[in-house]
Amino acid sequence: MMDAIYLLFGQGRDLDPLQMSLRAVVVFLIALVLIRISGRRSLGQRSPFDSVVVILLGATLSRAIVGASPFVATVLASLVIVVCHRLLAWICMRSHAIERLVGGVERELFSNGAFNDDQLQAALMTSNDVRESVRQKIGSRSLDKVAAAILERNGEVSVIRKEQ
Q1: Of 93, 28, 84, 95, nearest to 52 (Cα)?
Q2: Where are the alpha helices (DSSP H) in 10-47?
Q3: Against a cut of 0.90, is the pTM above it?
Q4: Of 4, 105, 110, 123, which sits 20 to 30 A from 49 (CA to CA)?
Q5: Is the Cβ–Cβ distance between 37 and 81 less than 8 Å?
Q6: Helix (H, G, I), strand (E, B), or coil: what is residue 141?
Q7: Beta bridge partners of 148
């Protein structure tokens, strides 16, 4: 049985195209399971906290495909990454301070007809960045119709229209 597994999946870095292809299929299925365990957060909201999981999973699981690291150890390391993500998300749900540390805070960049220079500076953004977001979101060059522009924790700028 083990001989058949070694024949199909290879061992170490000396893999033929069929072995790498079979590994790719298995790693693809494992990645799907790990992303399902990780939850919708890791792909939906895309905050830096969530992006870390996607980047690390891609980097780690690729090593299993090309045989750069032992297959089982690589899959287990990937599982640990996903479990750490879930654990930290759970802790963030219960601790506002940890959530702010991990997820960041939103910043009100523009409100009441004026830019908040302190918040722009803290976000490393310019008023032109906000104007660009306004053009993209509401299709206007003017800020007259904007009540507020808020840099969200996921890096998106939300534009809130004034009530008419």
Answers
A1: 84
A2: 17-38, 41-44
A3: no
A4: 110
A5: no
A6: coil
A7: 111, 160
Q: What is the CA radius of gyration of the chain?
A: 23
Name the CA dihedral angle for 85, 74, 21, 12, rounded to a multiple of 10 degrees.
170
> Residue 49 is encoded by which pair of tokens?
């906290």
Token pair recorded at residue 137? 């979101």
C-alpha span between 157 and 151 (Å, rounded) = 4
Angle among Cα 152, 86, 23 to the nearest 5 degrees reads 110
User: Which tens digit of pLDDT belongs to each residue from 95-134?
Assistant: 999 988 888 889 999 999 999 999 999 999 999 999 999 9
Buried b (16+ CB within 10 A) or exposed e, 146-160: beebbbebbeebebb
